[in-house]
Amino acid sequence: MFTGCKEKETLPEDVFDRYIGLWQQGQYEAMYELVSGTAKETASIETFAARYRSIYEGIGMSNLSVTALPQAGEPANDDGLSEKTFAYQLKMDTSAGPIDVEGDMRVARDQETGEWKVDWKPSLLFPSMEEGDKVTVRTLQSRRGEIYDRSGNGLAVNGSIEVIGIVPGEIGEAGEKTIAELARRLEVPESFIREKLAASWVKDNVFVPIVNATGDRAGLDLSDLQGVTKRDKSARIYPYGEAAVHLTGYIRQVTAEDMEKHKDKNLETDDVIGKAGLEQMYDDRLRGKDGVQISIVAADGMVRETLAKVEPVNGEDIRLTIDADLQESMYRSLDGDAGTGAAIHPRTGEILALVSSPAYDPNLFIQGLSEEQWTSWNEDPKKPLLNRFTKLYAPGSVFKPITASIGLQLGVSSVDEVKTIKGLRWAKDGSWGSYYVKRVRDVPVEDLTDAIVNSDNIYLAQEALEMGADDFTREAEKFGFGRALPIDYPFPKASLSNDGITNEILLADSSYGQGEVQMSPLHLALSYTPFINDGELIAPLLEIKEGRGGKEGKELKGEAQGERVLAPDTAEAIHRMLLRVVDDPKGTGHGAYIPGRKIAGKTGTAELKRTKAESGQENGWFVVYDAEGFDFLMAVMIEDVRERGGSSYIVRKTAPVVKGYVENRN
């Protein structure tokens, strides 16, 4: 008679293999069915599965591997055993790197059913875990790189600011009065403080920041207000404030728009990002890479074991050729006027200053910018948010040395060539119709040097017409027109004309920096370097690296990047003319004269108007350099100087900068 066959008993090895197989596949609910009844009494299936998922998701787990390790000689099956221990290896990749640990799993007979079950304990999450422990993921903050000038002065550095706040549990019974008085002293609405205190995370013993203790608030004595205190917090600091803001830019906390736009940066909501200037341009280099640490932490807060750790990588520090003291001196000299300027070392091309005025204080973004302040900046007619040193402007008469040098280079002009010019207006012939060139001084007889000293539009216009548009354009373009400046900072290309110099009137106007000629102040400063360097146009340098730039720059002429655009004798001739502009009491730049010093330069004004009859805005220019040490050249423009003395106004404003620099240089 057939009696059937006995069902094969499930062995502890089978339970172990089944459990680690499900574990590796992430089937936590199925794992739960294999654990002992005692374990099930402490956690539901939902709690059990959720614990695994939350821990593994929290640590960024991937590539999970759970494998059995060889046993230490125990028999495969022994009916007398009530429990058996199996060794295993747990491997995974995480946000903090790989985890590779070995653990033991106890499989025991259930006393009621006799089935083999996993004796689950927290150590089956990670071997060193005990009851009450937690797995924590801690971000290890990296340091944002800092920006320094040539002498090591900080332009954008990591520092700290004081924060005024309240500890709610210490405010006492006079809380309402304290809030009212604090609001009065901080000049904020009471509702502003109450909203801060009403945040969901606020607890009685937790410091609640209200405002940053900067500006007028820095000196407030709040010691009489119970529960009100000051604490330090880390912050990005801009020591030169508005004097350098258009150069440095600023950082702000990332927005959803930033995260969408810069997906490659893997930004988090509490990250910061450069929003303008060098902070934006060098953001990838300045930005550090945060580390992460995954640890098992006991109930008392002590770290039981560090499972994985990636050390933070700090951002790169950047050192510039900028002279922060000169930067500030130039900015202060403008005294709120709308204007801009650039200073360079003319031998090496090192950029010493890039200034835009008026400006704004980047520290306010860190301190907490009010909507009223932002609106004020946006609506200010002088446009403090506008970075003027990256804009193009008509250079006016400061362009004339370029025209003069081209005439000499082509042999059309000579230093001692005398022209007889009558009156303040001139037109070539009747083909010009009502159009004419005008000049400021009526000098009947003058040579080329006189024309530069007197800033004579007519003389230079006649020279340009003799050259012709093609030759003039070809030689002028050698000064960098139509080409991007070889520098990381984004500057627009200077231009001689929009679509070529197509007629004699445009050629005449171009000869004295009007017409369609457009230059940035930095490009203008660079265009004067051939007059100092035997005809060589020097390329700009902003960052100090690999030994180039810095205080030693004046010894680096041989390493300067440049190209020859003039013959040495032509360059020397223009240099002598520019010396006369300042030395000669009749020279338009004589206001910058320093007894016993050699200073050279050129003034200019550029009229912004559509017709001759129109009275438009007049921008004043001054290009000036130290003709003795040859380590300083500055080009400055101030808008709307017509009613303030024209170019003489800008000379008066900037002459102290020149004097201070040349007399105090090392």
Automatic annotation (TrEMBL):
InterPro entries reported in the protein's UniProt record: Beta-lactam/transpept, Beta-lactam/transpept-like, MecA_N, NTF2-like_dom_sf, PBP_dimer, PBP_dimer_sf, PCN-bd_Tpept
NTF2-like N-terminal transpeptidase domain segment(s): 12-133
Gene3D superfamilies membership: DD-peptidase/beta-lactamase superfamily, NTF2-like, domain 1, Penicillin-binding protein 2a (Domain 2), Penicillin-binding protein 2a, domain 3
Domain Penicillin-binding protein dimerisation per the UniProt entry, residue ranges: 141-306
Residues covered by the Penicillin-binding protein transpeptidase domain: 340-648
SUPFAM superfamilies associated with the record: beta-lactamase/transpeptidase-like, NTF2-like, Penicillin binding protein dimerisation domain
Pfam families with a match to the protein in the record: MecA_N, PBP_dimer, Transpeptidase
Primary location group: membrane
Highest taxon of the lineage: Bacteria
Subcellular localization, as worded in the UniProt entry: Membrane
Key words of the record: Membrane
Family note: Belongs to the transpeptidase family.
Protein name per the record: MecA protein
